[in-house]
């Protein structure tokens, strides 16, 4: 199944790009168009490493492919630098939504950290309002183009700073006005969810949902903390839950696995895993299993019944799209249309929406795949 230059692929005569999709793990500052970085950077006198959009895209891909989450995160210094004004934030958010719609996404959740966008004098309220304005513009543009998409904000706190309670309060204040959930991101190893227990206690008291980055740069203790201290309803990445699985034997096409208590809890409770295959390779999250997509435990988790979802994490850094991620998985693991639909249904079921809205989303996915 050849994948074209845009990451699309033909699957049983269908373009994957044309299938309805749900995106749960997609960072705003990780999805800025290279051309936009150059234009916005020029306007504020920012030193951008490349003056051509294609060359800048290559630069991001090269710098991100380090095998280290810490090094990977350094590339965000450039994208966040052009997201410090109302105009910059609104434009980036609008284009973000437009790019999702062009990729066949019908529902997306965009995560970003307001505290990282205050360098030019904007307040927390002002940056959230600017991003929401851009989201609204992107949704309107998609509607005019004949495409329906809805995008909600996941207001994110940085786990290595001490503003998480303030950010949690900000997220709840924007409930009903665009914010659908909360997240913590940034350096995972050494900065456990327990450091932010006050924020998570507040969110729980307000019945506001949280997803937590865990099981990417750190292992089972990080996942355990996300669930216990963070009350996470989803796991951001969560790929290292596979460390709690022991393959005891393999016969022909049958693999026999022993579950640890944590893995069984995540599987049995159907806690969605926000897996990001290309990003997981770039950051070294799957190093203990190998260095190629074939080594990714995605298929093992899927076959064992975990609620796996497919995500891009950072489109610019990984030079990818949701279509491309699905195409790569289909090519690597011989997935069929039914498999790709299952991933979208898992994502829809895990979306931070009211149950009626999730049911409507599930119906739209089923209808789209049937066509």
Automatic annotation (TrEMBL):
Protein's UniProt name: adenosine deaminase
EC number of the protein: 3.5.4.4
Residue ranges constituting the Adenosine deaminase domain according to the UniProt record: 20-367
Entry keyword annotation includes Disulfide bond: no
Cofactor field: Zn(2+)
Xref: InterPro entries: A_deaminase_dom, Ado/ade_deaminase, Metal_Hydrolase
Class of enzymatic activity (EC top level): hydrolase
Entry keywords, A to Z: Hydrolase, Metal-binding, Zinc
Coiled coil: none
Gene3D superfamilies reported for this sequence: Metal-dependent hydrolases
């Amino acid at each position: 199944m050849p994948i074209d230059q845009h990451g699309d692929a033909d699957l049983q005569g269908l373009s994957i790009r044309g299938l309805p999709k749900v995106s749960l793990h997609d960072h705003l500052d990780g999805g800025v168009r290279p051309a936009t970085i150059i234009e916005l950077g020029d306007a504020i006198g920012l030193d951008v490493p490349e003056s051509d959009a294609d060359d800048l895209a290559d630069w991001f891909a090269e710098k991100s492919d380090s095998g280290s989450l810490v090094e990977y995160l350094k590339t965000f210094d450039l994208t966040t630098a052009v997201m410090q004004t109302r105009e910059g934030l609104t434009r980036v958010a609008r284009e973000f939504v437009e790019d999702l719609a062009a990729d066949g996404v019908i529902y997306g959740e965009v995560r970003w950290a307001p505290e990282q966008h205050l360098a030019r004098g904007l307040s927390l309220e002002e940056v959230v309002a600017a991003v929401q304005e851009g989201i609204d513009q992107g949704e309107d543009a998609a509607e005019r183009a004949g495409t329906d998409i809805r995008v909600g904000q996941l207001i994110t706190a940085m786990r290595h700073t001490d503003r998480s309670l303030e950010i949690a309060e900000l997220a709840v204040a924007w409930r009903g006005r665009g914010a659908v959930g909360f997240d913590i991101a940034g350096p995972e190893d050494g900065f456990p969810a327990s450091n932010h227990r006050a924020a998570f206690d507040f969110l729980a008291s307000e019945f506001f949902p949280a997803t937590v980055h865990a099981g990417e740069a750190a292992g089972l203790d990080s996942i355990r903390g996300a669930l216990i201290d963070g009350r996470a309803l989803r796991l951001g990445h969560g790929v290292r839950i596979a460390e709690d699985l022991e393959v005891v034997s393999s016969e022909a096409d049958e693999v026999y696995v022993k579950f640890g208590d944590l893995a069984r809890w995540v599987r049995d409770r159907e806690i969605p895993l926000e897996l990001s295959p290309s990003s997981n390779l770039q950051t070294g999250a799957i190093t203990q299993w190998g260095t190629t997509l074939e080594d990714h435990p995605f298929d093992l988790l899927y076959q064992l019944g975990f609620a796996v979802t497919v995500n891009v994490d950072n489109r610019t850094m990984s030079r990818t799209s949701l279509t491309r991620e699905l195409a790569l998985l289909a090519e690597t693991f011989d997935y069929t249309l039914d498999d790709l639909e299952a991933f979208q249904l898992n994502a829809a079921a895990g979306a931070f929406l009211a149950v009626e809205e999730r049911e409507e989303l599930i119906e739209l996915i089923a209808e789209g795949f049937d066509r």
